[in-house]
Amino acid sequence: MKKFCIVSCFCLLVSMSAVAQTTNEEKKDEGYRFTIVKELPVTPVKNQAKAGTCWDYAGTAFIEAELLRMGKGEYDFSEMFNAYNDYCDRAMAAIRTHGDISYTQGGCFGDLLHVMERYGLVPEDQMRPGVMYRDSLSNHSELFSMTSPMVKAAAGNGSLQSDSNYQLLSMKAIRAVHQVYLGVPPERFTYKGKSYTPLSFYESTGLKADDYIQVTAFLHEPLYKTFAVESPDNWRHDLSYNVTLDELLEITDHAIAQGYPVGWDSDVSEQGFRMGNRKGFCVLPATSVDNSLAGSDMAHWTGMTAKAIQDEAAEHPTPQRWVTPEERQLGWDNHETNDDHLMLIYGTAKDQMGNEYYMVKNSWGEYNGEYKGMFFCSKAFFRYKTITILIHKDALSKEMKKKLGVK
Predict the structure, then answer these.
(1) Distances from the Cα of 182 to the Cαs of 173, 218, 226, 314, 342, in angstroms?
(2) How big, in percent rounded to 5, are the helix, strand and coil portions of the chain?
(3) Which of 76, 100, 187, 273 has the smallest number of Cβ neighbours within 10 A?
(4) What whole-number distance in Å separates Cα of residue 156 and Cα of residue 229?
(5) Mean per-residue pLDDT, 79-104
(6) What is the C-alpha to C-alpha distance for residues 79 and 138, in angstroms, rounded to an integer?
(7) Kind and range of the H or E element at 279?
(8) Which fold would CATH assign to domain 209-284+320-407?
(9) Which residues 6+ apart lie within 8 Å of 402 measured at CB?
(10) What is d(CA 393, CA 179) in angstroms, rounded to the nearest whole number?
(11) Can you tell me the distance from the alpha carbon of 177 to that of 149, in angstroms, rounded to the nearest whole number?
């Protein structure tokens, strides 16, 4: 009988060990599981392909989402129309400043706002990507290899020639090359049986560029004032409202909760983005863990090295690093944080550990990531790596409008 009890106890221990091992393996292998808290409607994902026009695709996705919010229905605007006008504006600015403004493909949300206010908008079928070189996706490499030397030569020339209408010949040549690669902007077109110019089409949507503001959170400028964020791609010197880091998240959360999409300008060179983007997430794993950090199974994380936590973060949720305003500022000042990529935030979610996320629409095609071009960004990553956000001014709370002096 005693022998039987010993054997039974041994079997029970083995069984419990097997169950525990299975449970641990299941826990380790379950990956990231997201529960959506709030999701706003957006238009389908596009692919910017081999063009540095994330500002264009993200900005266009933003205004398309805005029109859905406004009950205006689904629009599909032409990114190439926007790119053509902005590229030509930037070329002219580089010439006027003798090359002090860089002529590149990159940009900011303000570029899209300027383009639609000054030149209008057109439907996608009026200027599609790639059609000028027998493709369906953008590739602006050759375009810029042609136009960059032209802009540089004009910017460095002390006396530029002009035509009988006092228009620079160099800009006429630069516009012509852009049209060869991107297409000719239409002066008038028909949309759903009605005739429009690009400007009248923009006006018909009900969008107003002045309704949108950019917000940031840095320590080197006064709070609740505006300043031009020092990014090479902010060549128009567009202004952003400066708030505290906590307020930046509060503004973003409030906007989404009230049904407003959020344009997101961020750094995507961080390891937490690269390691998880194709799996559908980006995170900022904690470099150290103590009992002050929220999360389940704290005993598991306490005492682990930063690398070990980061390695696990590639497979399933871990505690997140919640940076201070000072850490964020240093990341910007020492160039660890760069103005890399613009996207669209359209919702909020949580993982099984309780970490909070934003739902993001990207512009790298549906093949990218497990969620067909969308992904989940932890609020910890957003807190550290956000450059600016773009929102409708009515997405601000009454209290924040008063602080910023926004009407």
Answers:
(1) 14, 37, 35, 39, 21
(2) 45, 15, 40
(3) 187
(4) 27
(5) 97
(6) 10
(7) none
(8) Cathepsin B; Chain A (3.90.70)
(9) none
(10) 35
(11) 12
- CA distances (Å), origin 305, targets 29, 194, 289, 297: 20, 64, 9, 16
45 vs 137: CA distance, rounded Å = 13
- pTM: predicted TM-score of the whole model, two decimal places: 0.90
What DSSP letter does each residue of 311-374 carry, written as one string?
A: HHHTTS---B----HHHHHHHHHTTSS---EEEEEEEEEEETT--EEEEEE-SB-TTSTTBTTE
Closest to 374 (Cα-Cα) out of 232, 250, 278, 310: 278
Statement: 52-207 belongs to CATH 3.90.70.10: yes
- Each residue's pLDDT tens digit, 47-83: 999 999 999 999 999 999 999 999 999 999 999 999 9
CA angle 165/168/170 to nearest 5° reads 145
Q: Encoding tokens for residue 224?
A: 């609740």
Quick check: 31 pLDDT over 70? yes
The yes-or-no verdict on residue 26 having pLDDT over 90 is: no
Domain with CATH 3.90.70.10 in the chain: 52-207, 209-284+320-407
Q: Provide the 3-class DSSP secondary structure of residue 375.
A: strand
Contact 354, 294 (CB under 8 A): yes
